[in-house]
Amino acid sequence: MSGPGSYADALEGRFDGRGLRIGLICARFHGEITEALRDRCVATLRHHRVADEDIEVVRVPGAWELPQATHRLAGLGRFHVLVAIGCVIRGETPHFDYVAGEASRGLAETARERDVPVILGVLTTENEAQARERAAADGQDKGRELALAALEMGLLYRGLA
After folding, report:
1. What is the CATH classification number for the domain harbouring 114?
2. Which of 28, 72, 79, 140 could share a disulfide with 134, CB 3.0–4.6 Å?
3. What is the pLDDT of residue 93?
4. Catalytic site residue from 30, 48, 71, 95
């Protein structure tokens, strides 16, 4: 179940992901949330026929490190799509703004510089309850949405080649 206004329901069942190689870069910080996103992303990719051997998970310490690892992986030439998974929860300092902003900017930069689609899967929430709701399979199920976006972009790029 995705949140109101989500494109995910319209996309379900439209994709055949056979042959797509997808890299998931998953932050360890807020690991319970990021692993839930990763699990749902992987389950949805499998549902759409992406083979287990075509899904590679790389872990990084936190959202700050996502752009670095994503940029490096994009340069290897072995992935059709990269999905950056992280979670930044607002605290009482400006740390949230720096980390979330730079993670987003760095991932966008990689998407523009490299010929590999990069899916932004960094939750930015006010509190942990919001993050849990977005990550939960019976909540907004953002992990599923990440997988569907990855499939759509991977197949789009394949079709444009």
Report:
1. 3.40.50.960
2. 140
3. 77
4. 95
Q: Which of 25, 17, 26 is nearest to 155 (CA)?
A: 17
Q: Are 125 and 89 in contact (CB under 8 A)?
A: yes
pLDDT digits (tens, 9 = 90+) for 71-108: 999 999 999 999 999 999 997 778 888 899 999 999 99
Amino acid 72 reads: R
Q: How far apart are CA 136 and CA 1, in angstroms?
A: 9
Spell out, as residue ranges, where the chain has pLDDT lower than 50: 1
Which amino acid appears at position 8 of this protein?
Answer: A
Closest CA to 148 of 58, 65, 42: 42
Task: Kindly state whether residue 8 falls inside one of the protein's structural domains.
Answer: no
Structural domains counted in the chain: 1
d(CA 141, CA 156) in angstroms, rounded, equals: 23
User: How many C-beta atoms surround the C-beta of residue 4 within 10 A?
Assistant: 5
Q: Which DSSP state fits 94?
A: T
Q: Is residue 5 part of a domain?
A: no
Answer yes or no: is 95 within a domain: yes
* Domain containing residue 101: 16-160
Active site residue 95: yes
CB 78 within 8 A of CB 115: no
